[in-house]
């Protein structure tokens, strides 16, 4: 418990100090990064000594097996998260082909010293609309001297160990299994001729592979949220909180900076806690809500660009089952939904105070996820639904499954977890190692942009992922369309203007913030081989490196020669 709290506070306090200092000083630079990490360690040390010592119950045989599978899955996922192999930088997850590129761009962008909160790095509109807390943490590590790839790996492994501890603390091995082996009945048809058609209807995918590994905010938000669940369950049951109030306040108030959907679920649960807890607990929940309201609201406003999330919340009944029939539900969820319904009836019949708060809140959130979408991409509702299953896991085990005789419990566990276990095994296969970006192109892009300040630069380049130039941490005119659409940007007109700009040199007023343009293999592949020969009026060649050319506006006062030209 003490070590788990230390780690959570270390990250949260470091990021909080860096955000405050970077806002006041105009960016995060190495001295501020080092100071933020030191202050974070100090805050974590205080939390460590102020947290009462508490031991977990001893592990039995099945506990060791489930924990071992979790650690193996984490090691396989994060040791091969990003690595060099021959001429390529490679990744180990197909779900990370696009997500990791955005994370790397944001980390490099934040580490470059841009003013906080920074301008939008993926579109010509407003400020960055992304809960980048864990990326700011990696930016601090990068500024402190940790190589980018190693910082990503270390953070992934540390977040996994921390999550394993808090999963076991919250719901034992069953909660760990819920994250590892989520799935419906689809896996039972894995070896059947109908598998190809069934696989097309799978939307409730393995939570560990598709959410925990790819949504980097979970590396902190998941264990922090579980720590709050442990604290709030104790309070609802009239027991003392397991750690100091200021720690609880820090974890909850800063949560929007790391993962907005987690904050939404925990906020709903906070309201349930106010209603369900005894008098002293109600006052504690109220005090937490009041104390966290201002800082949390500011952070929500920050990461949403002033609550400007276009097309985010909409009526969307049926979630992703439209035109897929009733089979969608058993393929994706199997017996999970019937068990959830039985659990809800039982806990409200027994009037168990803590179970009613957690299961009742989860039921309302699940219904909302099946009736509305909370982001432009409806699949993102999974970011809320993951909390539904984790929050109910200990009650499902304690109330329904554990009391059953072994002959009844084993088939239910097999029905719950077989499909997800099969998906996990397949997802961890060594065949899932993918080329990501050419190392020579990546180095050439770094050389091409050397000397430019990301705070004063806006690049026009092909909107593809991963782009070796975007990975250097420079803001671009139009990023990868998949990111722009899922984040709610109206980007089509600007994307068309960019295509005209590259193809004919005709520049729209929409592109006026651009300071530089890059012509490289990605641009030639997308817009044609003979681009900008000669460059359009008002632009001139600044530098060449590794088959890439950097152009700048003549009005920007840039040199007209090529003093750093590297034709190789």
Please provide a written account of the structure.
With 568 residues, the protein is an alpha+beta fold. It is 58% helix and 6% strand. The chain contains 22 helices and nine strands. A four-stranded mixed beta sheet has the order 6-7-9-8. A three-stranded antiparallel beta sheet has the order 1-2-5. Strands 3-4 form a two-stranded antiparallel sheet. Strand 8 and strand 9 form a beta hairpin. It is globular.
Average pLDDT reading: 92
The count of domains is: 2
Number of helices: 22
Number of strands: 9
Q: Radius of gyration, rounded?
A: 25 Å
Low-confidence stretches: 557-568
Strand numbers in spatial order across the main sheet: 6-7-9-8
Describe this protein with a few key phrases.
single chain, 568 residues, alpha+beta, 2 domains, 4-stranded mixed β-sheet, 3-stranded antiparallel β-sheet, 22 helices, 9 strands, 58% helix, globular
Task: Please give the structural blueprint.
Blueprint: H1 2-25, H2 30-50, H3 61-79, E1 83-85, E2 88-91, H4 96-111, H5 133-143, H6 148-180, H7 195-199, H8 207-212, H9 218-236, H10 245-253, H11 255-258, H12 260-276, H13 279-303, E3 314-315, H14 327-333, H15 336-350, H16 353-371, E4 372-373, H17 382-401, H18 406-427, E5 434-438, H19 439-448, E6 459-460, H20 481-486, H21 492-504, E7 516-519, H22 521-527, E8 539-545, E9 548-553
Parallel strand pairs: 6-7
Antiparallel strand pairs: 1-2, 2-5, 3-4, 7-9, 8-9
């Amino acid at each position: 418990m003490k070590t788990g709290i230390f780690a959570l506070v270390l990250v949260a306090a470091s990021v909080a100090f860096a955000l405050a200092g970077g806002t006041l000083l105009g960016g995060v630079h190495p001295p501020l990064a080092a100071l933020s990490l030191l202050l974070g360690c100090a805050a974590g040390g205080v939390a460590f000594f102020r947290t009462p010592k508490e031991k977990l119950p001893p592990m039995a045989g099945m506990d060791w097996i489930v924990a071992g599978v979790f650690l193996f899955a984490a090691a396989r996922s994060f040791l091969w998260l990003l690595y060099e192999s021959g001429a390529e930088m490679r990744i180990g997850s197909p779900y990370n082909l696009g997500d990791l590129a955005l994370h790397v761009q944001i980390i490099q962008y934040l580490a470059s010293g841009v003013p906080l909160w920074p301008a939008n790095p993926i579109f010509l509109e407003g400020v960055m609309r992304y809960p980048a807390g864990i990326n700011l943490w990696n930016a601090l590590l990068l500024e402190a001297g940790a190589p980018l790839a190693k910082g990503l790996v270390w953070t992934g492994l540390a977040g996994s160990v921390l999550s394993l501890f808090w999963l076991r603390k919250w719901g034992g091995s069953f909660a760990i299994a819920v994250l590892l082996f989520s799935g419906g009945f689809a896996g039972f048809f894995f070896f059947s001729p109908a598998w190809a058609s069934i696989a097309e209807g799978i939307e409730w995918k393995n939570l560990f592979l598709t959410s925990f590994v790819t949504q980097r905010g979970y590396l902190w938000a998941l264990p922090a949220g579980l720590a709050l669940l442990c604290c709030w369950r104790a309070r609802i049951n009239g027991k003392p909180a397991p750690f100091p109030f200021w720690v609880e306040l820090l974890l909850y108030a800063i949560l929007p900076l790391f993962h907005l959907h987690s904050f939404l679920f925990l906020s709903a649960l906070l309201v349930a806690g106010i209603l369900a807890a005894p008098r002293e607990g109600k006052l504690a929940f109220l005090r937490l809500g009041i104390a966290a309201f201002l800082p949390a609201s500011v952070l929500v406003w920050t990461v949403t660009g002033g609550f400007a999330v276009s097309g985010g919340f909409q009526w969307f009944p049926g979630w992703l089952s439209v035109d897929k029939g009733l089979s969608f539900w058993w393929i994706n969820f199997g017996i999970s939904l019937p068990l959830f319904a039985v659990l809800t009836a039982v806990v409200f019949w027994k009037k168990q105070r803590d179970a009613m708060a957690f299961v009742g809140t989860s039921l309302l959130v699940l219904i909302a996820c099946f009736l509305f979408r909370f982001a432009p991409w409806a699949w993102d509702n999974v970011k809320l639904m993951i909390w539904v299953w984790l929050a109910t896991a200990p009650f499902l085990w304690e109330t329904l499954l554990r009391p059953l005789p072994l002959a009844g419990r084993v088939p239910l566990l097999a029905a719950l977890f077989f499909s997800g276990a099969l998906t996990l095994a397949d997802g961890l296969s060594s065949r899932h190692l993918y080329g990501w970006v050419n190392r020579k192109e990546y180095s050439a892009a770094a050389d091409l942009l050397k000397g430019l300040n990301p705070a004063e630069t806006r690049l026009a380049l092909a909107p593809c992922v991963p782009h070796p130039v975007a990975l250097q941490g420079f803001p671009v005119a139009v990023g990868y369309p998949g990111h722009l659409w899922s984040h709610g940007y109206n980007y089509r007109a600007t994307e068309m203007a960019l295509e005209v700009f590259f193809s004919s040199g005709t520049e729209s007023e929409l592109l006026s913030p651009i300071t530089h343009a890059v012509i490289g293999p990605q641009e030639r592949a997308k817009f044609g081989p003979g681009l900008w020969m000669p460059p359009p009026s008002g632009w001139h060649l600044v530098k060449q490196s590794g088959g890439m050319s950097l152009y700048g506006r003549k009005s920007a006062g840039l040199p007209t020669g090529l003093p750093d030209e590297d034709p190789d």
